[in-house]
Amino acid sequence: MEQPWIHKAKTDSIFILLPSFLVVAMVFLFQNQLKVIEEHYSFYTWLFLIVFIDVAHVYATLFKTYFVASEFKKRRKLLIGLPIICFVIGMLLFSFGSAVFWSILAYIAVFHFIRQQYGFMRLYARNEPKKWAWIDNLIIYTATIYPMLFWFLSPTRKFNWFVANEFFQFENPFLLEILAWIYGGILLFYILRTIYLTLKTKSFNIPKNAIILGTILSWYFGIVYFNNDLVFTLLNVVSHGIPYIALIYLSEIEKKPTSDLGWMHFLKNFQGVFIFLFILVIMAFSEEYLWEFMVWNEQFSGKKQDFSNWYFIIVPLLTVPQFTHYLLDGFIWKTKR
Fold first, then answer.
1. Does 42 have pLDDT greater than 90?
2. Separation CA 23–CA 7 (nearest Å)
3. Are the beta carbons of 284 and 56 closer than 8 angstroms?
4. Is the predicted pLDDT of residue 112 greater than 90, yes or no?
5. pLDDT reading at 124 higher than 70
6. Secondary structure of residue 321 in the 3-state scheme
7. Among residues 52, 112, 59, which one has the least CA distance to residue 238?
8. What is the maximum span of the chain, computed from C-alpha positions, in angstroms?
9. 295: closest CA among 304, 283, 286?
10. For the segment 165-192, what is each residue's pLDDT rounded down to a tens digit?
11. What is the mean pLDDT of residues 198-219?
12. What are phi and psi of 202, to 5 degrees?
C-alpha cells in the first residue's frame, strides 16, 4: 500500500516515529549510566530535556499561528483572546492556592499529551475507512489512559508531572488488576486484528502502527514498568516534544511554498533548520530562566530573590505560553479532511 506519510518516509521515521523507540531502547541498555546522570548531572538533564525539548516545543506553535500572517488574520480573535483567558483562569485558579493551580494544570497537560498521540494516529490513518476508526481510537486511548490510571491508583510513583501531590491518588490493588486484564485484552485484540487485516488485505500501515506501538511502549515503560524520575522525563518529554517540533517544521515550513511563508522563507533550507531550532531554544531558555529566577530557584546558584508576594501574578503569567499551547492545539490541527 502507499504509506500515508506526513512529509516523507525518511523524515517521518527519524523525527516523528523513532524517538519513542530510541528512548525506550536507551532506557533498557543504559540503566546504570542513567543512574549516574540522574545523580551527578541533573542540571544538564534539566537543560536538555525540560528547556531544549519540553519548553521549546511549546513555542514551536508560534510558527503555525502567530508568526503566520494569513493564519493570524484568520484566527485573530482566538489568538488574541486565548492567552488573556488563560491568564485570567490562571489567576483565578491560583487564588484557590498553588496546589489547586498546579493540579488543574497537570490534568490539562495530561489530556493534551494524550490528544497529541491521538492526533498523530489520526493523521496516519486519514486514508483508511472511517467506520473502523473507533478501534484505532480505542487502542491509542488505552495505551495512554491505562498508565495514567495506574499512576492514580499507585501512590508510590517517584515522579510527578509538575509538583508533588498534583493528582488525586488512592491505592486499590483489586481495581489495578482488573484494569491490567482489560489493558492486556485490548492490546491482544489489536495485535490479532492487525495480523488478520495484514494477511487479508496484504497491506500494512507502517506509520500508524508505529505511532501506536511507540505510544504503548513509551507510556507503559515510562509510568508503569519503571518507577524513576529521569526515565519518566526521558520517555515523556522526548516522545512528545521532538515529534511535535518536527511536525511544525516539516508541515508548516519545509512543505509549504516559499511564497506562502512570508518572513519565514529563510528557514526553508538546511541552515534554516538550525535557525528555527535556535529561535525555539532562546525563547525556551528565556522563559525557564524567569521561572528559575522568580519562582523555583533550583538550577542557578547566586543570591536568591523573594518574589513570593507576587506569585499570584507571576506564576499564571509565566504559564500563559504552555497553557495557551495546550488549548490552542485543540483548534489549529482540526481540518474537514
1. no
2. 22
3. yes
4. yes
5. yes
6. helix
7. 52
8. 68
9. 304
10. 899 888 889 999 999 999 999 999 999 9
11. 95
12. 55, 40
* DSSP letters spanning 35-81: HHHHHH-HHHHIIIIIIIIIIHHHHHGGGTTTT-HHHHHHTHHHHHH
Cβ 57 vs Cβ 326: under 8 Å: no
Find the helix or strand (DSSP H, E) in which 109 lies: helix 98-124
Q: Tell me which residue of 222, 219, 206 sits closest to 121, measured CA to CA.
A: 206
Q: Yes or no: say if 114 and 144 are a contact pair by the CB < 8 Å rule.
A: yes
- Residue 325 predicted with pLDDT over 70: yes
Q: How far apart are CA 246 and CA 11, in angstroms?
A: 9
Would you state the cell numbers that stand for residue 99, as one nine-digit string?
A: 496546589
> What are the cell numbers at 213?
506501538
Amino acid at 224: V
Which triple of cell numbers denotes residue 96? Answer: 484557590
* Residue from 180, 182, 208 nearest 194 by CA: 208
Residues found in the chain = 337
CA distance 154 to 148: 10
Name the residue among 243, 191, 241, 202 with its Cα closest to residue 7: 243
Report the Cα 281 to chain-centroid distance in Å.
Answer: 17
What is the 8-class DSSP label of residue 162?
A: S
SS3 126: coil
Residue 239, C-beta contacts closer than 8 angstroms, at least 6 positions apart: 19, 20, 23, 214, 215, 218
**Alpha-carbon distance values, 45 to 150, 176, 213 (Å):** 26, 32, 26
Provide the grid cell at 334. 482540526
Query: What does the block give as the cell for 75?
Result: 484566527
Give the DSSP letter of residue 125. Answer: T
